[in-house]
DNA sequence: CGTGGATTTGAGAGAAATCAAATCATGTGG
DNA sequence: CCACATGATTTGATTTCTCTCAAATCCACG
């Protein structure tokens, strides 16, 4: 079963706090943000390519992903999102969405109206900077994803993706004893890595046999996280998880 | 030979104006931005992975690209930049660079101190929003690049990249009669597309033979831009070139 | 005119795709 | 509570796109 409950503002504040010290007023303003809490079934489209959203989505519990569909019907997953993420902040300034935002599993999200965010952005420069920074980190992950799908052979590609997810899950307290609930199917992995699901299957068997990781029944287990990061040439710099980095 | 001269503020204002109406005060503030103009030789590293830049780089003339180098020495180009671009705006909030910024050919740039940009960002909300938007468009291009390198066969991949460049060159007035100065080598293309230069060579021959495009002696010629966009399944939505889109 | 970068050509190897089908869940409705 | 449908995982055989390795040619430039 999914996991911990966290309140909307908790998740958001924790997230932003990782990046800088907010003063009491900032926090109070964030806590006063209006929002609508919603429970979404796995597979729900939150935003579709072409939509013009009027609110942003804060992920409270569960997982989301963003994807584009190519002309010939192939899907490319662009990012996975863990609780605390605000995956469509870009809609504040990019009015027509160029991709889909989808619930990976049953998830609970909070919708915050653009209005409110635009206001907070004008009145609280520090919060504005942090939100901007969030979108820039997003961007940094995309850059890394380009390198991953473009330059690494399948096993390293998988290792890199999983290493990234592990770090991000860990940052929000969802890794325990080298394992985490992670409801990705091999099809999701294939669509994220630019591989076919049959090839993903063979790669996963290999990594399992080599004792690096095991993804089974929706739980991810690391047997040797360090060796996995080496295989994936993983350098966490691009995650910008450190405030002053 | 390279091309037109444009003044720093001209380029910047033209760029930002494409996205919204700036009032006289906004423009005045931008025009007062302090900057250092510099002439850079082809191949110059403007920022290296690991650097902590204290200024942003506005491209006035020539081309830049951003790249990451993998452990095994392969280079992945993440984006190309045309005059008017500010390719390292992200350094305003991401303090350690996760990639390199390099001059593709002899280029002239203007460096604007972070200080000045942070100030303008606090005092002129409209300009702040536009700069933020610039970084979000950046992000949108990365998303598209992921799809391109991950999902399309080599000829479509090339077609897509070239179509994007054509649109962006056109937007800043650098396409004339279906041709433009574009000093990309086949090695650059290979590094951008995740292919080898020998394969790039064969793909280019094919596209030339099929009468779609021709890149020779640093000038790009379109024989059939529309067919090229079809081949590359190019949809300009993600460029967000339209203010209200 | 020599040197190094850029482009081109050829032959062979390899990683991942494709095609096809079996097995294994899981969840729903009768 | 079983029967059936649907989705996820697994396996095998074959194909294909792109890489690798090698070498020749071209070309700009000092």
Short description:
The structure is a homodimer of 245-residue chains. Chain A has 245 residues and is α+β, with helices and mostly antiparallel strands.
CATH topology of the largest domain in chain A: Jelly Rolls
Q: Would you state the CATH class of the largest domain in chain A?
A: Mainly Beta
Structural class of chain A: alpha+beta
Strand-residue fraction of chain A? Answer: 15-25%
How are helices and strands ordered from N to C of chain A? HHEEEEEEEHHHEHHEEH
Note the overall shape of chain A.
Answer: globular
Give the overall average pLDDT of chain A: 92
CATH architecture name of the largest domain in chain A: Sandwich
Strand order of the largest sheet of chain A: 2-6-4-5
Short descriptors:
homodimer; Jelly Rolls; 10 strands; disordered N terminus; DNA-binding
Structure overview:
Two copies of one chain form a homodimer. Chain A has helices at residues 8-17, 24-31, 114-123, 125-151, 154-171, 186-193, 197-209, 225-231, and strands spanning 36-40, 45-47, 55-61, 64-69, 75-81, 100-103, 107-113, 179-181, 213-216, 219-222. Chain A is of the alpha+beta class and 245 residues long. The first copy, chain A, has two domains: 2-144, Sandwich (Jelly Rolls), CATH 2.60.120.10; 152-239, Jelly Rolls (Sandwich). In chain A, the strands form three sheets. In chain A, strands 2-6-4-5 form a four-stranded antiparallel sheet. A three-stranded antiparallel sheet of chain A has the order 1-7-3. Chain A has a three-stranded antiparallel sheet with strand order 8-10-9. The longest helix of chain A is centred in the middle third of the chain and has 27 residues, at 125-151. Chain A binds a DNA duplex (30 and 30 nucleotides) through helix 7.
